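Tokens as discussed.
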């Protein structure tokens, strides 16, 4: 009997050890509009509007953007333009020489292929209808041509009016029927019409005495029958070329370059422009250093850059009176009710790659990355709030973050910029200035405390730099050229011992707190793989990871030995749990060591954790969180263990089904900010309803989960659509039988 008890206890202990060491992954965060770029915004009045973008998406709001309903024209193509005559009749244009018409406000769409366009792959970039019969479209094929066509019979037939053979056309605007302007690949491609059928080429305007490598005119807007504004190319990378601003007061017959004072010049592409009247307008754009929004109140004589809380490229702007909406990359939508003085982010979670991730304290975590996106949780990852890191009107990409505590944090950006927050990310200040030179970058940051910290990066691809501050970023000293490659990672064991790693199998170490740095040596490593991240496990033991390589040092970073970890991809980041346990992530790989880096096991669940994984952090509960592309996060922290509370959300949330792909069961989760009548239904690819999970039931505010079992369905793509009052959202899922 005693032997049986011992056997039972041994088996039970083995069971608990097995469960404790196992990894159960889940997707913890999805973006609101995955991998979405909104290309055109159109508002009929101060509350009702539409926005279109990639994957054939069309979204409509009737409450100024508080909530949106979505529909799809063709998920395989991108929509570029939208125009509505009234609340019911509207048009959307896209690829494959196709536009779509709705007569019910966008609930359903009817496609029309314009065979008069000879290019089967032609993109209809702009569309305008003066009434139900008279309309115009602008089409282009890559950068080789442009065409303008018109119809007088509601689109039954189309007449080709203009063909531009050598330059593509980009945008078009009408003030009324027959009076319009069109812009193209250069300042030499400006056309106008006064009869709707004949398009005349305007003289090429001067470019203000500046030398331009190109002069794309990307956006145009007619304010009235005589006045129009156009915007376009700008860059700082190929010499200082100011953003282009043109104006016409004779319906496009001639254009004037609006030269800006040096203080007002921006050096980024402008993609969209809108005017509420002849004098007051807003133009939007952006590039690698963040979003750009400029405003004029004097008819374009002065364009003043506004402080705009975003880093994504902005594609379109439209409005009604003082109410303005902007759409752009990363699925961002913004609203201003005071003509651009203040802005509200309407997108709950923008879609951007998360290059950096860190948990601080018992409940607080931060994630950041592409376009300067910044996500914060204060409830252990139950929910995340979105913003962008903006300082001095700049928002370059974030490469690394380091928070000393829940309030004080530092961020390393491209273009050398380093920013600091003392209020948990609510506001940011620039503590290391930016540069316009794209080869100068800050790649990684590490702070010992609120005052003493280090930033590693490059002055060029063949020249490293290490910055040090002892006063919280008020001043910095720099050490350049320690290694002849770009530095990617920095970490310290204590106030004296630290290491940096970089491209071409380079590393350096310090034993005097960064006063001096010495190049490190490597043992047993084949080739010169790039190193991307480094972490100290104790005072002398460090691990660095990179391009299919893991190396370990036991002497403070002076010497690095190759570890045959088995990584098949570039490992972007490594994070420690304790002195013996660490995690590294890459493309479809999550590696774990429990013996201080001597051996590694890939613990990924490929059915859940997918794509390229860029960042990893271990929270105080010893659970792993991973950041990936499109604001996606994964974790092995159980959802029920994240927070004992079930807070009522402040918005509608529809999670991606889990698992996805699935066979044969999956779970659909969503959250309601208020009690609502809910419909949850499943549809196949051709829009047929195949299952009804919730059929108009009234559900309380809070979180809800439903299981869907697809025993009788064949493999393929399906959609689940949730409708709750005016809110609706559709997401895709994949069944693999």
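Sequence:
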């Amino acid at each position: 009997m005693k032997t049986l008890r011992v056997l039972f206890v041994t088996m039970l202990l083995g069971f608990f050890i097995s469960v404790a060491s196992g990894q159960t992954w889940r997707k913890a965060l999805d973006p609101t509009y995955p991998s979405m770029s909104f290309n055109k915004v159109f508002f009929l009045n101060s509350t009702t509007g539409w926005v279109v973008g990639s994957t054939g998406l069309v979204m409509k709001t009737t409450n100024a953007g508080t909530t949106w309903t979505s529909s799809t024209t063709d998920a395989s193509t991108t929509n570029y333009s939208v125009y509505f005559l009234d609340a019911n009749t509207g048009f959307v244009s896209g690829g494959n020489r196709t536009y779509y018409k709705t007569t019910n406000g966008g609930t359903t769409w009817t496609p029309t292929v314009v065979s008069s366009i000879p290019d089967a792959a032609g993109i209809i970039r702009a569309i305008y209808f003066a009434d139900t019969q008279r309309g115009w479209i602008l089409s282009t094929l890559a950068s080789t041509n442009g065409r303008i066509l018109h119809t007088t019979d509601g689109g039954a037939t189309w007449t080709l009016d203009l063909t531009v053979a050598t330059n593509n056309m980009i945008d078009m605007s009408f003030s009324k029927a027959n009076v319009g302007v069109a812009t193209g690949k250069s300042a030499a491609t400006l056309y106008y019409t006064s009869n709707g059928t004949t398009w005349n080429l305007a003289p090429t305007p001067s470019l203000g005495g500046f030398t331009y490598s190109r002069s794309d005119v990307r956006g145009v807007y007619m304010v009235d029958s005589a006045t129009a504004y156009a915007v376009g190319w700008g860059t700082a990378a190929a010499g200082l070329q100011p953003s282009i601003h043109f104006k016409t007061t004779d319906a496009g017959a001639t254009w004037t370059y609006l030269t800006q004072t040096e203080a007002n010049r921006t050096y980024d592409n402008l993609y969209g422009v809108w005017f509420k009247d002849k004098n007051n307008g807003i133009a939007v754009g952006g590039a690698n250093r963040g979003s750009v929004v400029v405003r004029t109140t004097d008819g374009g004589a002065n364009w003043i850059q506004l402080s705009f809380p975003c880093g994504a490229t902005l594609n379109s702007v439209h409005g009604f009176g003082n109410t303005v909406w902007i759409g752009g990359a990363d699925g961002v939508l913004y609203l201003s009710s005071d003509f651009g003085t203040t802005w509200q982010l309407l997108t709950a979670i923008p879609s951007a790659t998360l290059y950096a991730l860190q948990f601080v304290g018992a409940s607080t975590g931060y994630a950041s990355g592409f376009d300067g996106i910044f996500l914060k949780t204060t409830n252990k990852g139950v929910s995340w709030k979105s913003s962008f890191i903006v300082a001095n009107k700049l928002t370059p990409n974030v490469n690394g973050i380091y928070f000393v505590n829940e309030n004080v944090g530092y961020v390393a950006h491209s273009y050398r910029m380093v920013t600091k927050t003392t209020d948990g990310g609510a506001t940011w200040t620039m503590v290391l200035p930016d540069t316009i030179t794209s080869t100068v970058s800050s790649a990684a940051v590490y702070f010992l405390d609120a005052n003493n910290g280090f930033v590693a990066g490059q002055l060029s691809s063949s020249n490293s730099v290490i910055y040090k501050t002892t006063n919280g970023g008020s001043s910095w000293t720099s050490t350049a050229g320690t290694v002849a490659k770009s530095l990617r990672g920095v970490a310290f064991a204590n106030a004296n011992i630290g290491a940096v790693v970089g491209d071409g199998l380079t590393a350096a170490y310090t034993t005097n707190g960064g006063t001096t740095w010495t190049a490190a040596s490597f043992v047993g490593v084949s080739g010169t793989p790039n190193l991307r991240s480094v972490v100290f496990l104790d005072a002398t033991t460090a691990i660095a990871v990179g391009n299919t390589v893991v190396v370990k040092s036991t002497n403070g970073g002076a010497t690095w030995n190759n570890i045959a970890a088995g990584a098949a991809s570039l490992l972007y980041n490594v994070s420690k749990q304790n002195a013996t346990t660490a995690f590294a992530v890459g493309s479809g790989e999550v590696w774990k060591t429990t013996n201080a880096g001597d051996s590694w096991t890939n613990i990924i669940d490929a059915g859940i954790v997918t794509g390229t994984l860029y960042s990893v952090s271990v929270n105080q509960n010893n659970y792993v969180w991973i950041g990936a592309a499109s604001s996606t996060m994964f974790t092995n922290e159980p959802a029920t263990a994240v927070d004992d509370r079930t807070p009522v959300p402040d918005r509608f949330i529809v999670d991606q089904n889990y698992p996805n792909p699935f066979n044969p069961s999956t779970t659909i989760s969503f959250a309601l900010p208020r009690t609502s009548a809910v419909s949850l239904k499943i549809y196949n690819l051709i829009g047929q309803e195949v299952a009804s999970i919730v059929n108009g039931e009234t559900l309380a505010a809070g979180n809800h989960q439903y299981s869907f079992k697809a025993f009788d369905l064949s493999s393929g793509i399906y959609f689940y659509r949730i409708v709750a009052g005016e809110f609706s959202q559709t997401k895709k899922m994949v069944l693999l039988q």
